[in-house]
Structure prediction request, 484 residues.
Amino acid sequence: MSTTKESSVKEISLIQALIPVIALVSLLAINVYIFQDDALGGTNQFILLIGGTIAMGVGVYNRVSYEQILIQITNNVKDTSSAIFILLLVGALSGTWLISGIIPSMIYYGLQILHPTIYLPACVIITSIIAVATGSSWTTSATVGIALVGIGTALGMPIGIVGGAVISGAYFGDKLSPLSDTTNLAPAMVGTDLFTHIKYMSLTTIPTYIVTLLVFIVFGVIYSSEAMVNTQETLDAISNTFLITPWLFLVPITVIVLIVKRVPPIAALLAGTLLGAIFALIFQPEIVLTISGGDTYSFYNAYKGIMLALTTDIHIISPIESLNGLFEAGGMASMLNTVWLILCAMYFGGAMEAIGALQKISMSLLKIADGIFGLFASTVASCLAINVMTSDQYLSIVVPGKMFTQAYKEKNLAPENLSRTLEDSGTVTSVLIPWNTCGAYHSGVLGIPTLTYLPYAVFNYLSPFVTLLFAAFNYKIRRITTKN
Prediction:
């Protein structure tokens, strides 16, 4: 009975596979044009639901059962559950790290060290080091990324450029770290080993990184003249509002060490959140009392102040009005728009996967591949398309990895060519798409809309072009060697 039902399913055509994509992109373009940065407040989420429903309609037309599509959507949502909990914990962490003085201390010392001229390239380098150490661009944004955005805001740097510098460095480190999940996934999908993959990937990644650094050095020179050079007033305002001490750095150092030791991110972030709360009670009791709205420092008011910081919007007033924006945190509630976006994106991606649209588009790209450059270009296009359609960077590695492995072998290309291309075009571009889990996460954590930092995420959009440039000139393209 089930065999008959499966055989009745019609194969989806390329035009049918593209219908939901065209509809989604068109509606999102209209939506972003009308709502601009406010589009992530809910309207983009609804557009994703419309796109997913159109995909379901195409599937039902081709006799794919509604139950089958729903199962795939449910599985996609289940796969993002860890990311959702991480997002909520990052929101809670930002609250306790603010009221404990951790983030203000980072900004305070950072302003003393980072002159406006070197600030932007320093952002790239600092986030690169943290991401290599932790293997996670997400952890990097949630820790030093937040502080660097605060420093940049205090210096008067354009927020989009600051976000681009943080994202560029974080993804460079994530790509080359042996601790990174995507860096382990890519070689596993194509049949090569981790360190061969990293070594071969560095051939395209390091030149891209050097160009990125040079670009941000130029940006630093251009914008340093507009930035606030005299920071003493800001430093005084921070120290008058919070107790600033190097002891507070024990908390972020602990979180980074836990991540490096391969402690699960949820456990590491929870530990950082709770430590932040404890340090708030020790170092900033007046701040906690102010948040609680109470008159006397008691268990009741201490508990209330901490819980409000963990879950809701909090505002700490500083002597300088321009700093008040730095001393705000949204707790877990601030991440709900991002969670909402991820759930709706998984609805669209799950429907597209269930109806066979992803496979059809990838196979069509493979058919038009002509020669070695065409194969590389098809791989890049496939990774980008799947990042847009499924909102998941892992699928942008897994699906093309499965689809193109045999084609690379037939061209006598070593598997590390494919694994490198998957990372150069799948991993790094996920953060440039507002409804992708990565784009939604970094935008939510850093407080910078995706489309605001996108033009300045130089490393991320340059990487696919560099890998295609290598392919076009047939440079460092490794062949399969036969051992006698």
Q: What stands out?
A: The CA atoms of residues 67 and 73 lie 10 Å apart. The first helix runs from residue 2 to 7. The chain has 24 helices and two strands.
